[in-house]
Write a structure and sequence with these properties.
Blueprint lengths: L5 H6 L7 E6 L5 E9 L3 H4 L1 E6 L2 E6 L16 E4 L2 E5 L3 H10 L4 H5 L14 E9 L2 E12 L2 E12 L6 E6 L16 E4 L4 H11 L5 E10 L5 E7 L3
Antiparallel strand pairs: 1-2, 1-10, 2-12, 3-4, 5-6, 6-7, 7-8, 8-9, 10-11, 12-13
Length: 237
């Protein structure tokens, strides 16, 4: 698979929607994740990321303008022991709760489908990172309608057991802008992951469409110790 420029991937797509990146820093010492949200409507754009425990949550920037919280207010990131869960919806809680009961990442997502927001039927994208005994692996998932057919859910899971240093994968909800919005197609895209968290965050943020970008979260986790550093950038400040 060809390694793509994340900067160009974002700059050439005015509306990738919501996106998840997971990989390993170039020096091989950090497990890396990033999650961004975008919006076309006033309701979608009226959001910020805030810290909540070891994870983050979306909340309304101006509560008086919030019209429908059902698909936009959720916890994108939660931590379960040595596992970090990253998703674009409330399936974060589903994964957390069912894995806590002994189910796998893939099994927990069998209880969920794409979002009920026809005609878009936005895919649910999810990722999980696991660090144990100095080793790091991750999986990514997408649940999507069958070419816009709400009666059929297509489920794809991609697992990466040995992540090479400096590599990662990028999955997002939409191939581009449109009505209805076209769902992501194919495997997660192979991209480069740098060592510097602040530089990576700025590259991502500056590459997202200025009108549509809303919030960005980036976290670098030390594979040896499990300690982490993170960064949140909100358009609404």
């Amino acid at each position: 698979m060809k390694t793509l420029s994340i900067e160009q991937e974002l700059k050439n797509n005015s509306y990738p929607g919501r996106g998840i990146i997971i990989g390993k820093s170039k020096d091989g010492t950090k497990a890396v994740t990033a999650y961004f949200i975008m919006g076309r409507s006033e309701n979608s754009r009226n959001r910020v990321f805030v810290e909540e425990g070891e994870g983050i949550r979306t909340q309304a920037f101006d509560p008086s303008k919030l019209t429908d919280p059902s698909l936009i207010i959720y916890a994108p990131v939660r931590v379960l022991g040595n596992k970090t869960i990253v998703t674009n919806g409330d399936q974060t809680d589903t994964i957390y709760e069912l894995m806590e009961k002994g189910q796998t990442f893939e099994q927990s997502l069998r209880t969920r489908e794409f979002e009920p927001d026809g005609p878009n039927y936005t895919p649910r994208i999810s990722g999980i990172m696991e660090i144990e005994d100095g080793k790091f692996n991750y999986s990514m998932s997408i649940l999507k309608s069958d070419n816009g057919n709400p009666d059929s859910c297509n489920r794809y899971t991609f697992s990466y057991e040995t992540c090479p240093a400096g590599e990662g994968h990028f999955i997002h909800t939409y191939m581009g802008d449109g009505n209805p919005l076209p769902s992501f197609e194919g495997e997660p895209k192979l991209i480069e992951i740098p060592d510097d968290m602040d530089d990576f965050a700025q590259t991502l943020w500056n590459s997202l469409n200025e009108d549509n970008k809303v919030s960005l979260f980036v976290r670098y986790i030390d594979i040896a110790t499990g300690t982490y550093t993170g960064k949140i950038i909100n358009k609404n400040v």
